[in-house]
Amino acid sequence: xxxxxxxxxxxxxxxxxxxxxxxxxxxxxxxxxxxxxxxxxxxxxxxxxxxxxxxxxxxxxxxxxxxxxxxxxxxxxxxxxxxxxxxxxxxxxxxxxxxxxxxxxxxxxxxxxxxxxxxxxxxxxxxxxxxxxxxxxxxxxxxxxxxxxxxxxxxxxxxxxxxxxxxxxxxxxxxxxxxxxxxxxxxxxxx
Length: 191
Prior knowledge:
With 191 residues, the chain is of the alpha/beta class. Helices cover 29% and strands 14% of the residues. The protein contains six helices and five strands; from the N terminus they run αβαβαβαβαβα. The chain starts with 7 loop residues before the first helix and ends with a helix.
């Protein structure tokens, strides 16, 4: 499961609570040559009025940033307890655990009515991760944070059944990433 440098320990703890066994934490080097901050003056104006807290419009956002943007993402490698020995051996054999694949450029992203997932992963990255884990046709895959569906599509290309969990379904002012995944799967021939 992909995470963020500041939050991966909490995400790993939640996965353990759900009954998974953490086998290791790998890294995806995104290819950014320098960290960059998100301009809050621009982003604050994009938050829909119905979702903003009451104090939101009273803040002068000029000069605010979100700190430094990371140039890597942790990849939490986990398994069910029944597969723990097999996955642990593969994690050890894979060695380095750092994968360099450039981020997807905005023009390459799949869109649904103008909606793009902010952290869409390149298919080649997922293919390399599945190769390192020696994933074979018929192996079952779970992505507890499905996002734009890249992991599910990589599993489908390998002939693996997969389950993806995504909370952003368009309700409560959230983006409809579930709809994005369904449209993306349909566009790539996934039943």
